[in-house]
Amino acid sequence: MEHTVAMQRAIALAEKGLGKTAPNPIVGAVIIGAAGKVVGEGFHDRVNSPDHAEVVAIQAAGDKAKGATIVVSLEPCNHTGNTGACVQAIIDAGITTVVFAVADPNPVAAGGARALKAAGINVISGVLEAEAAFSNRAWLMKIKKNRPFFTWKVAATLDGKVAAADGTSKWITNEVSRADVQVLRRQADAILVGTNTVIVDNPHLIPRGEFAGYAGNPIRVVCGEQELPKDAAVFDSAAQTVVVKSKDLDVLVEKLNELGVNHVFVEAGPTLASAMVDHCLMDELVIYQAPTFLGTGKHYFAFDYPTTITDQMRMDHISTQVLDGDVKSIYRIRNGE
């Protein structure tokens, strides 16, 4: 099996861990035996097992790991924490070649490639690096900026409205779009809303549909100073709920860092979401646009700037998908970069 094909599989395996590995990264591993066949594979799933992807794959391969090649989406860690170092597990298994996509930027766990080479193992790096880095962008952002990665979810009309003039907003987008949102919820470590959203909409903020009843639901985080109803849906036992009783976004980030989350899915209203954009805290916009107009109503972006066309806030387009008539687009927010 070619290294690029095996890496594509390793990345797909890693993505199975989204929402399950924080504060650790997502990692997938594939072991190719001497005959060129896959003899073991695995991914990190901290919710259900402490073992790292490389160890899971080695255990699956058994004796077939000796003399084999392991393909990993992230450089194997060289750190002994709650689990042993993956580098040592690879050496002990008798693996002779390690192929990885992204170098580990975490100073605590870095140095895996160097240690493997010192042990006489052939190391190949950078295979499908961009693809693997995109999948792991939340954790990589946290290491780079010491804060979680924030994805802003918006469901709007073509003229940018998220609610009608009377405040009603259920439902703007169709069932296919709403089902897609549940996938993104499931892949996040926390779901963030403001106190006004809880008071007005009383959301449950738990992945629905096929994801209902899963273990390890995202943490529900409510930010703001308004008093919340004690019987609000977010206070049930379906998931942990944390209230950050402050409008200070630095306090919010500090609390999220304490919780150890990598990826925050922001379902807040225009006031909180726009403040986060202004504070350079939004990293990604996922917007679902329904083929409708509302005219009057609430717009999803609440700030009045820029004042001239040259001051536009530019974003980088990542992807667009049609969902039964709705249009889902993903953009990277540059945050002054």
From TrEMBL:
Coiled coil: none annotated. Its cofactor is Zn(2+). Residues 1-124 form the CMP/dCMP-type deaminase domain. Its EC number is 3.5.4.26, 1.1.1.193. It comes from the Bacteria. PROSITE patterns: CYT_DCMP_DEAMINASES_1 (PS00903), CYT_DCMP_DEAMINASES_2 (PS51747). This is Riboflavin biosynthesis protein RibD. It comes from Candidatus Planktophila vernalis.
